[in-house]
Amino acid sequence: MSKTVATVIAQSLSAAGITHAFAVPGESYLALLDAMRDVDVRLVTCRHEAAAANMAEAAAKLSGRPGIAMVTRGPGATQASIGLHTAQQDSTPMLLLVGQVGDDMLGREAFQEVDYAQFFGSIAKQVVVLREPDRVGEQMAAALATAISGRPGPVVVVLPDDKLGLPSESRAVPPAPVSAPAPSPDAMETIAHLLASAKRPMLMLGGPLWTATDKALAEEIAVRLGVPVVTSWRRKDRFDNTHPHYAGELGLGANPALLAAVKSSDLLLVVGARLTENATQGYGLFDQQFASQTLVHICGDAGALGRCWQPRLAVHAAAGPTLQALAELPAQERSEWVAQCAALHRNWAQPTAVQQGVNPAAVIGALSTLPADTIFCNGAGNFAAWLHRFHLHRHAHTQLAPTSGAMGYGVPAGIAASILHPDRQVVVVAGDGDFLMSGQELATVAHEGATTLFVVMDNAQYGTIRMHQARDFPGRPSATRLTNPDFAAFARSFGLHGETVRETADFAPALRRCRGRAALIHVLVDPQEISPGRRLEPGA
Q: Cys bridge to 94: 12, 87, 304, 414, which one at CB 3.0-4.6 A?
């Protein structure tokens, strides 16, 4: 058979080393669905387009290659936009392949027509329309390269349905590898001088697509340079959290003592992180005077440098080459300062108590007895505060959490992780509101043979919003109470194992029964126990 536009698209994904794609099938791209049968890319069928996009985003974080989602036009595209937004905020390479009406219908507000350039313009790096059959291979390679280069992010590839079946003389080619920018010798000389004169330096790590090699190198550098290390929000797996140089995470609900230590530092060396709102405490962690005297900002995203503050030194360089350069600097010793900062984290990570009901800190403690390479996934909600505070990540690629703060992310992310890594334990920690935004994907677990473990913290409310209401509108809760199903029975209806936990002591035995299998543990939590160490008073 002669090649078509659809076959070249499918072959382009295979040529780029893509192993999985996540889809909700649609009539607007039937030819591509057919072409996917003939390439060695596993096509995972999802039950909602938002889940397909979130799975693609999670797969990219784990593999380092662009995640691939395929959805139909109109409603399929708009429902997938949440995953695209997460990919944009998390700097995750991703391709959203989306159907479109034929060119003969375009501009008439045809059935399910959307102007994708306008709709996705602020959350996609590029919107590419495949209109010329003989350029499809070129355009696909360029789209994949755009997604991964510079600051990684999502690219939308539009598939007009009157083009997919046309013959194409194009050839599938893999995107060329891109050499990451490295810090200049002059920049490294300045950094070496600043480190040599600093008494209280700190190293902050973040940014996308770290490798296990990057993480190991960062740990060597911390010891060699005698610096405590903090990680950016939801980037805890960039550094071993049990390492004697680890001082904690900067983000929502950060340790107040850690924030004070950062403010007292005389050199803040930032590698990879863009210094966004949550990592900088609403842009209030430091001011311009601090930045001009103390901040060295090294980032692969040139647009992030100097955006909010003018640092003492701004360096456009990727994390990997930067870490290699830092490893060549002279060894230094600041054991007292390092020990002081590390103690802050050890104290902060001690489990907190609750007045009644299941203690979520103990739940996380039990989950932390799982193998050190267990992948932990979560969406958004107060429940995540216990996970982020009390679980200590040891290895790279063990944290899948959206810096976009998107609810509904953890369930599909955990399913994708289990499909990509069937030999590893994968745990999704979700709130009740968070879980039911994507709970239908338990059908995907059963269909694909995934072995994800779901732990649903059920306090019958949108907890984060309830907490904010108690702060801003005390005694006037509104729209935050939830009526939930029996989540264990819900899981069993899909063929998963289900358990219900009402007492803290019952969680560890339930976990033992669930290990290594597709399962859900429904944990009933007192709604007043709103976050670690904080309880809502009655009537608040």
A: 87
